[in-house]
Amino acid sequence: MSSDKYVLVDIRDIAEIAAKVLTEDGHISKIYTLTGSDAVCYEEIAKYLSDILNQSIYYNQVPQKEYYEILLERGTPSWRAYDLANIAGAYLEDSNKLVTNDIKNLLNRSALSVQVFLNDYQANFEGDI
Question: What is the pTM of this model?
Answer without folding.
Answer: 0.79
